Automatic annotation (TrEMBL), chains A, B:
This is Glutathione S-transferase. One of its GO terms (cellular component) is mitochondrion. Pfam families: GST_C_3, GST_N_2. Residues 92-217 form the GST C-terminal domain. One of its GO terms (biological process) is glutathione metabolic process. One of its GO terms (molecular function) is maleylacetoacetate isomerase activity.
Length: 224, 224
C-alpha cells in the first residue's frame, strides 16, 4: 500500500511531520516522498500546486485520494489501516474523548506558536506593532502553561493517557518546535520530559527533521 | 445517553452549531443545554470557565468527558454512537478521504471568514490597517471561490459526495454564516443551492440559530 502513496514535505514543518509520524506508526514505510525547501519557494511550485492548490506542504496522496490537510491524513491512515502497526485511537471512551479534545486544541497551540515565530513573515512591515508582538507572546506563554498543566495533571506519559495516540502525533511536532526555538527546559519540566522521552520513539526518530540534526534553532522563545 | 450530556452554547456560533447538528443527526435530542449571550460576555462566566478554561463556547460534556473543541465533539459522538441515527463517516475510501480533507479545510475557511467579520473585534484600534482589511477580504473571496468550485466539480449534493457527512456538519454553519452576512447568492450559485437545500434538513432546521430567525445580518459580505 505504501507504494501507492506520495508525500511532498518540508523539513521541520509540524503538519508534514505529523503525517510522517502517522505513516511510521502504521508501518507504512517505503512511500514515495520528496523533501522540498520552503526557503526556495518550492511549496508554490507547479509540482505542489498540482497536488495541493493551496500551495502548502504537506501534499499527500493515497492512491487517487488527496489528503493534504495533516489531520485529515492522520485520521484517514488510522481508519484505513486499523489493524496495522500501532492503534492510534483508544477504545476507552474517556481516553478517546481526551484524545480528540487534545488533538484539536493542538491546532490552537500550533497557531499561537506560528503567530509568534512567523510574525515578520506573516505581517507586512508597515503593519507590524510592538503591542501585537507582546500580545502574541503572552498568548503563547499562556498556551504553553496550559499544556505544561495538562501533562502535570495527566494520568499517563502521553497526552491522552497511558498510550501513544493521534493526540501525540498531532501535538508532538509543535512541542519539539518550541524547544527547537530554545524554550527553557527548566521552566517547563513536564513538557521537556515529554519532549525528551518521545525523541527516541522509533516513529519520531525516523522522521526527525533532517535540517535539525546538527544545528540549533534561533533563541526566539528562550525568555517565554 | 443524551441526559448525561450538557451543552453551553451561543446562537450563530459555527462551532456551537456543529455540535448541535451532530447531536441531532445521532438522535441525541434531550441533552441539557443553555443558550448564552456572547454580547454579555457569558462565555467568560464562571459557569463556562469551569467547563472550558479557554472561556469559549461551546462548552460540552458527555458524562464526565469534556469535548469543548467542536470537531472533537463531532468525531467523538460519531465514534460512540456509530449505529445510532445517521452514519456521518462514509465507508468508501474515496468518500472518506474527501470527507476528512474537506472537514479540515473547513477550519481554514472558518478562520478566513472570522478574519474579515471579526476584524475590529480581534484587532485593537491602533493596530488596524486598510491594507490588512483588503488582504483579508481578498483571501476570503479566494477561499469562497474554492468552495464554489468544490461543489461545482463534486459528484453529489454534499461536500464529500452523495451522502451527508461530518464534512457538512463542520462546514455548513460557515456557509450559512456567509449568507447571513449577505453574500450574493447570484455570484455563488452552487454555494447558494447547497445552503438553501440543507436549510430544510431536520438536523439543521432544528438547530437553526434562534437569533437569526426573524432578522437579517449586516451587509458585510455583499460585494465579496
Amino acid at each position: 500500500m505504501a507504494k501507492d502513496m506520495t508525500l511532498l514535505w518540508g523539513s521541520g514543518s509540524p503538519p508534514c511531520w505529523r503525517v510522517m509520524i502517522a505513516l511510521e506508526e502504521k508501518n507504512l514505510q517505503g512511500y514515495n516522498q520528496k523533501l522540498l525547501d520552503f526557503a526556495k519557494g518550492d511549496h508554490k511550485s507547479p509540482e505542489v500546486m498540482a497536488m495541493n492548490p493551496r500551495g502548502q506542504l504537506p501534499a499527500f496522496k493515497c492512491g487517487k485520494n488527496v489528503l493534504n490537510e495533516s489531520l485529515a491524513a492522520c485520521m484517514y491512515l488510522e481508519n484505513q489501516f486499523k489493524s496495522q502497526g500501532n492503534k492510534l485511537i483508544p477504545d476507552c471512551p474517556a481516553e478517546q474523548a481526551m484524545m480528540y479534545q487534545r488533538m484539536f486544541e493542538g491546532l490552537t497551540f500550533s497557531q499561537k506558536m506560528g503567530d509568534v515565530i512567523y510574525y515578520t513573515y506573516k505581517v507586512p512591515e508597515g503593519e507590524r506593532h510592538d503591542s501585537a508582538v507582546k500580545r502574541n507572546r503572552e498568548a503563547l506563554a499562556a498556551e504553553i502553561k496550559l499544556w505544561e498543566g495538562y501533562l502535570e495533571k495527566g494520568s499517563g506519559s502521553f497526552l491522552a493517557g497511558k498510550t501513544f495516540s493521534l493526540a501525540d502525533v498531532v501535538v508532538y511536532p509543535s512541542i519539539a518546535y518550541l524547544f527547537r526555538f530554545q524554550l527553557c527546559e527548566e521552566r517547563y519540566p513536564k513538557l521537556a520530559a515529554y519532549y525528551n522521552s518521545l525523541k527516541v520513539r522509533p516513529s519520531i526518530k525516523a522522521s526527525w527533521p533532517p535540517t535539525w540534526l546538527d544545528t540549533h534553532g534561533p533563541e526566539m522563545l528562550h525568555d517565554i
